[in-house]
Write a structure and sequence with these properties.
mainly alpha, 2 strands
Length: about 140
């Protein structure tokens, strides 16, 4: 790798495990896309908008696990904010014929997408403000 390419690469790679530059922007755009798609699917499916509004921020209750430990808090937060969790819940609801479950999965996916679009990434267990999308909070 040339010196110029090496210098450019070092400006893009974060030392704390977080993505930066264009990759970070792409991940945030992807989150916005998931938010829009999940919200649209929820509305089209006939989901109750009051339920959507009431439960949209419910996944953030996983923050409570940080009172026990950063490791448990990060694990709980990441489990609830993972697209894989929303997909598994949605599949369970779809294949079991329980529309409420897949509608809850759409709310969960919309919330996770919204968080990612806003720059809130999956947490590292070292601290609440360290995420895969960079540091959050006042001490960025």
């Amino acid at each position: 790798m040339s010196t110029t390419a090496s210098a450019t690469a070092s400006n893009i790679v974060s030392t704390n495990g977080a993505v930066t530059g264009g990759v970070r922007s792409l991940l945030r755009l992807e989150g916005l896309s998931i938010f829009a798609a999940a919200t649209t699917a929820y509305v089209i499916s006939g989901g109750n908008l009051w339920l959507f509004a009431a439960l949209f921020f419910a996944p953030d209750l996983s923050f409570a696990f940080y009172t026990v430990s950063p490791r448990l808090g990060g694990a709980a937060y990441n489990f609830v904010h993972s697209y894989a969790t929303a997909l598994a819940l949605g599949a369970l609801g779809w294949f079991s014929g329980m529309p409420l479950l897949w509608q809850l999965a759409l709310i969960l996916a919309a919330h996770a997408g919204f968080d990612r679009a806003m720059g809130y990434g999956l947490k590292y267990v070292t601290a609440f403000n360290q995420t895969h999308l960079g540091r959050i909070g006042r001490n960025k």
